[in-house]
Amino acid sequence: MRRLQRLAAWTLSALALAVVVAASWLIVSPPALLSVGSGYAAKIVCSNVFIAGRDPAQVLAEDVQAPGHPLLRFMRQDVDFEGKTVTTRLLGLFAPGYAVWHEGFGCAGVPDGDFRAAQQAVSDVPLPVIPPGDPAVAWPDGEAVTPDARLAALLADPALTGPGMRAVVVVHDGRIVAEAYGDGFSQATPLLGWSMTKTVNAALVGRLMQAGALSPETSDLFPEWRGDARSAITLAQLLAMESGLAFNEDYGAVTDVTRMLFLEPDMTRFAVSLPLEANPGEAFNYSSGTAVLLSRLWMGALGGRVQALSFPSRGFFAPLGMASAVMEPDETGIFVGSSYMYATARDWARFSLLLLNNGMWKANRLLPDGLVAAMATPTAASGGVYSRMQTWTHGPGEKRDTDYGLPEDTFWMLGHDGQSVAIVPSRGLAVVRMGLTPSKLGYRPQPLVRQILDALDASKLEAGQAPT
Length: 468
Known about the structure:
By secondary structure, the protein is of the alpha+beta class. It folds into two domains: 32-121, no CATH class; 169-460, Beta-lactamase, CATH 3.40.710.10. The protein has helices at residues 2-28, 32-50, 56-65, 115-121, 149-155, 158-161, 197-210, 235-239, 256-263, 267-272, 288-301, 305-320, 345-356, 371-375, 446-462, and strands spanning 75-80, 85-90, 94-102, 106-109, 165-172, 175-181, 191-192, 326-327, 341-343, 360-361, 364-365, 411-415, 419-424, 429-435. The strands form four sheets. Strands 6-5-14-13-12 form a five-stranded antiparallel sheet, sandwiched between helices. Strands 1-2-3-4 form a four-stranded antiparallel sheet, with helices on both faces. A three-stranded antiparallel sheet has the order 7-9-8. A hairpin with a 2-residue loop joins strand 10 and strand 11 (364-365). Helix 5 (149-155) runs antiparallel to helix 15 and helix 11 (288-301) crosses helix 12 (305-320). It starts with a helix and ends in a 6-residue tail after the last helix. The relative contact order is 0.12. Residues 11-29 have low confidence and may be disordered.
């Protein structure tokens, strides 16, 4: 009996020691996957709480835990409303993730926990005050809309708008003609565009091309590339995702994209360090790292920190009346042009209308002539699915848009978890669809766009007009 008691005591002691060792390991050197998860959770909660005004418990449960990796279900959070910070930890103890909010700049992930450095990166930068639209004035100058009953019926069909839909806005001939919102969301809720941000980032590059500050054919783009083959990469090749740089865009594990977004305080330093895996201009590789490099280039072309940080609001959102739009930086103050822009669905629609108008807004040309055409022009290296300006020339899925009956000039902004905007210039149509819809659910927005086109044609026939 004593022997059994000693054995049991020894076993318990060994187990206790193992628990202490494991806990110490998790505290001192947590696995990268856990740190990715906590960094992701902190960033998503921070932005949705302090930009969109949502409840932190709801955001953690619905946006982070429900659709994500099973380990995220064990994340616990601490939201400091006074200090505007969010800290998340596995089981409330391990692998901390941090994010901090900045006035006018949303939230930045802070992988190293240095809140002060992140706050100083964007401090003392004056931003223009963009007044909200007048509810009595017609959109896009104001917020008044006149819905089309036929289209409203389509947007009430969950089979067309898809699971997890949060907003759908339909723009036709310069006006919002239909919109719908998911439970808990409204026309005033800023929503994350994920990779739709890449197209806005490309438009900012276009603004500086128009001003002569950037040229598509410029090479030798970064000091870190001088003296090696990467110096041959041009700005045009970055825009077309044909730089030849290695980058793993797979989510769900520790890859280049998750490491850059959630483990690296200086995302540009990580992206600029990547090696070539193909000759520049010869291969297509979709890369969020490329978009971050574009952010650094256009910000550097403006010649100063204040000018660069204020440029999206001053030079783009203000002229369009996008009062809700927020681009978010990394810890060092470089905009995460690959992924992090929040705006209401109506403001995403304002940007879409700019593209429908070939870069013109009222009487002002905001984008150089030809830039929107480049967004609709497929590249050979991509197999005809991607453009020269950070857009997709076919919607999600294996089928081509023409297989759904969509016009050949349709092109897309697409983002993670079901964000999409279909731009159909020949029909004066844009369809903004936002939500939380993981790709594993198989939702495709093309049938919604096709049904909208059919409804518009039916309305013309009833009015005695020929359909387009």
